[in-house]
Amino acid sequence: MPRPNPPGPARPANPSFAEFRAIAQPPEVRARKSAEHWTADLYLRDISPYLSRPLVRLGFSANAVTYLMILSGWCAAGSLLIPGIAGVALAVFFGQLQQLIDCCDGEVARWRGTFSPAGVFLDKVGHYTTESLIPIALGVRAAGGVGDISGHYEWTTLGALLAVVILLNKALNDMVHVSRAFAGMGRLPDTAAATAPRPGLVSRLRRVVRYLPFHRLYHSVELTLLAFAATVVAIIVDTSVAGTQVLLLALAPLSVLAVVGHFATIMASTRLRAPTADATDAADLEH
Questions:
Q1: What is the domain extent for residue 139?
Q2: Could you report how far apart the first and last alpha carbons of the chain are, in Å?
Q3: C-beta of residue 44 within 8 angstroms of C-beta of residue 99
Q4: 269: which strand partners?
Q5: How many domains does the chain have?
């Protein structure tokens, strides 16, 4: 049965699409600087209310929707173990589905007025596990599949190493929030000004990288799309696994460069600098 609305502003039992969207997808959601993936900006936020509204009427909680997001991400990784074009096509589908459901869980939470640390935690679990399982699956695919791993461990090892670097890159953002919380600082605003590096070399390099944003290749959407493109190229040139192998060889060093650049950008910004602190306070924060 549908769950009753939580205490707070009354919600209509059968909201119109406009009523639902006004609460579940307010303008400030789409105005966020870094919390939205480009697919959400481009088209998924236009589609998501058509899924989240029925989920609300069916009684799904926001956390239940997040569990669906996690499952779809794992299916994207698992699909890469299916040989040929069918596997990567399924991976692209589930990668898009994961991002769509990721939009929906927040919309369900806003409609129900239910926000909790558990929801944030589950969201992190979904993205961390998916974006580490996909490169591992790519490594298995590059080795020729589950049945041909023996004797091709260099590819599975490369996939596992790529997964570790992707996890580290994702963790850097969370390290910033944890460090600020431990230092008694407030939540970092989701604005370009809050994350921009101070004027200098890093700032200039960051402007250059905007024209070749390789650091954005490690989300489940991009990874599955790249896997699909690599497989299509492999089919065109009549080879079974070379496309995935080339993809891994390109992604691995670029991922290391992305982590180094990410770290440098964080340290060159004001994200970890207390607004006012004398020398004694600064020494205390270091410990």
A1: 17-24+32-286
A2: 52
A3: yes
A4: 197
A5: 1
The residue with tokens 């589905």 is: 97
Determine contact, residues 273/182, Cβ cutoff 8 Å.
no
8 Å CB contact between 118 and 111: no
User: Using alpha carbons only, what angle is made at residue 103 by residues 97 and 107, rounded to the nearest 5 degrees?
Assistant: 135
Q: How confident is the model at residue 175 (pLDDT cuts 50, 70, 90)?
A: very high
Q: What integer pLDDT is reported at residue 179 of this predicted model?
A: 92
Please give the single-letter amino acid code of residue 213: P
User: Is the residue at 8 inside a domain?
Assistant: no
Handedness of CA 225, 231, 235, 238 (dihedral sign): positive
Cα 240 to the center of its chain, rounded Å: 29
Q: What is the pLDDT of residues 35-88, one digit of tens each?
A: 667 787 788 888 999 999 999 989 899 999 999 999 999 999 999 999 989 999
Residue 90: both structure tokens together: 């399924």
Q: Which CATH number covers residue 168?
A: 1.20.120.1760
> What's 274's DSSP letter?
-
> Are 134 and 77 within 8 A, CB to CB?
yes
Cα Rg of the chain, angstroms:
21
